[in-house]
Amino acid sequence: METPAEPRAHSADPNLDYVYATLDGLQRSSPAQAEFYQAAEDVLASLGPELESDTHYAKHAIIERLVEPERQVFFRVAWMDDKGQVHVNKGYRVQFNSALGPYKGGLRFHPNVTASVIKFLGFEQIFKNALTGLPIGGGKGGANFNPKGRSDAEIMRFCQAFMAELHRHIGATVDVPAGDIGVGAREIGYLFGYYRRLTGRYEGALTGKGLAWGGSLGRVEATGYGCVYFAENMLNARHESLEGNTCLVSGAGNVAIHTIEKLYQLGAIPVTCSDSTGTIHDHRGVDLDLLRTIKERDRLPLSRYLETHPEAEYTPLSDYPTDGHAVWRYPARAAFPCATQNELTSGDAEALLANGVTCISEGANMPSTRAAVEVFLDAGIAYGPAKAANAGGVATSQLEMQQNAGLTQWPIDKVDARLREIMTDIFNRCSATAAEFGEPNNLSMGANIAGFRRVANAMIEQGLY
Ligand code: GLU
């Protein structure tokens, strides 16, 4: 894996020295959190010009305060499997920053979850949520629990054991978790049911709820649809569009499935998808109904796709290129990384450029390594960083919170129109901010600075805490 944090020489820019001194301090005080340093460096390294133009951030120690979560809850989750065996997992909720609103962000259940992974996700969430323009702070949680192969009853018992601790830390105006990898409608149902039972309150303390019990129409689709809307915005600004273009998508979960669905609706041709066991390339376009049956209904490995479409190409994980991922090695116009962090290396980025890709819109959180991002930025292609491109999910969660607060449910047209509007606003905010610093195409810098400004100013205006 490309390592995020290497020793650095001091720069000529005193503002970047301040940033890097903060990052070095972070590595000493919170050792062994590679993903978190990577996310922190991505944001902080963009801030040089902003810190130069505005010195009051240093006086208020904004950078130092931003990298330190307001509160972290680490807890034991003990639960019983179907055979009566007890298991123990680590549970987390990191309440990173509440300057803009209640902590908001998903829960991830995956065996590779660590404090570092949850902190990177929580840190990203602060800026993503700020970019939506909505009143939500940043947080994230989860557990190193592997839901694969577990029965419904086991999933329910795990969710209940998790909520037995989490419920005392969340609430509709305090902290509002949602789904992420390994946490979908089924898990949110079990979590919400147990929250209600423990607290006796029927309130929007979670989002991504079922439609009959407080959920919002369009929430399931929102991250994937939003990611495609973001790509459309980037391409329209370049007088291009997705229509008729071949697209690469990684992943086979909720984000990937709805990215593929929206791409078809806009006349594009998504030809790939992947899971943790392998990659499918179907040059006529991915069979979306089949993908849903395999992954959503039956929860099976992607190789099953070949039983219906033997002519598609399947690459097992063992045959992936040594410097990256098979899914990024096909000719296409646009690419949508929708699986997980660091799934796209600099080798993949070079291959994408060589194969004609001119647009990347990130549906997953931090899917590209820092070296890969640099390849995209140097090439000047349309690059939509995750905290901007995948913000449609959390934005629609906030619309769910609005509906819950008003004891109402909006029609799908209203939710989708708001989502489209929000994604366009995010794009405009990122490109206008990047343009202020003379780099209109650098949406990564634009997203980081625009998100930072909103949070930093709210922190300063609200006084020291
Ligand atoms: N897990 C999603 C994200 O990464 C959604 C969070 C939410 O809806 O609160 O943004």
CATH level 3 topology of the largest domain: Rossmann fold
- Largest sheet geometry: 5 strands, mixed
> So how many helices?
18
What is the radius of gyration?
A: 21 Å
Mean pLDDT: 96
Terminal residue distance: 38 Å
- In total, how many domains does the architecture comprise? 3
Per CATH, the superfamily of the largest domain is: NAD(P)-binding Rossmann-like Domain
The hetero molecules present are: glutamic acid
Task: Indicate the CATH architecture of the largest domain.
Answer: 3-Layer(aba) Sandwich
Outline:
globular
Uncertain runs are: 3-8
User: Strand order, biggest sheet?
Assistant: 1-2-4-3-5
Class computed from helices, strands and strand pairing: alpha/beta
Strand content: 5-15%
Helix content: 40-55%
